[in-house]
Amino acid sequence: MRVPKLFKLAAFSAITLHGAVFAEDKPKVINFGVASVGQGGRPQVGGSWIATAHSKGMLEEEFKADGIQVRWHFFKTAGPGVNEAYTNNLLDFAWQGDLPQIIGKANGLPTKFIMAAGRRATFYLAATEDSTAESIKDIAGRKVSIFKGTCTQLSANRALEANGLSEKDLKVYNMDTATSTAALATKDVELAFGGNNLFSVRDRGLAKIVYSAKEDNGGKYGCSTGVTVTEEFAAKYPDIVKRVVKTLVKAALWTEDEKNRTQVYQLWAKSGFPFRYWEQDNAKQDFHTRLSPLIDEWFVASYRKSIADAKRFGLLKRDIDLDRWFDRSYLEAALKELNLENHWQPERAEAWQNAGSLHASN
pTM, whole model, 2 decimals? Predict the structure, then answer.
């Protein structure tokens, strides 16, 4: 019996399509978003093992034999920029702070939260060198820059509240990191909340640090950060997600090792913020605890508190089901495969209320 030519063509097309489905068991590109940029907008950052993984090319090395390209996307617009890119299907993974992450999820971004990346992040308040402000209590009615929509905004609101203030008591200007630093130097604002980027104007004699979260209740006002992946990517390439997480766990392990501290700061200095800034910013910090990838009791409690705080400060309207959002399966598999199941000790939720000092003893 002769098979019609049209049927043969259809059958061939089906086989080709079927083969293509199997050929796509891995992506051609992994797009990874980073909610920060280096000095001058350079595509390099510091301050986390995400920065370490990027600078050392760890993901690129992991997927080199597979022919999978890793593209890093750095956002001057920080967390809000990452959310916009997620909305436009431009990213597969991203590293962000807690506030933009929960805002994105509350507004329907289809992501899974797959590993913690940091907790108790340090932030500062700087004032112009001629400002009479000596602490947060002194800044009511003054011009202050805050990068809105980022975890720094949430941290600043917590610190303000602890000192009997809110954003409504200030003349707030929404500025990104670079703009904020420049505005402080030119005295277009009197004060600015930010990170170690503020050290540059301090060292030029143009500003002074009047508040450091590092010394305030063990840094409990500082934000937490983590890594997310799109639900679509996770469903389509579960093995790739496992390998990404496994590689990032290796980055966390290398970064926290005290004998690598000098090399870590050298890598982070590629951001354009010098070695000494990272050294000062992280002096006596216990990376083992602060950079733990575990989604433990403390970390979950910190996100519950971030949701509650954000709603109270008027930064968030909807709630989030954290139990459905957090997916520990990839991290647990990576820790088991690397024989690191007992390397990081989970922090209990009670530690959130009694942050204490998590500084190293040396």
Answer: 0.89
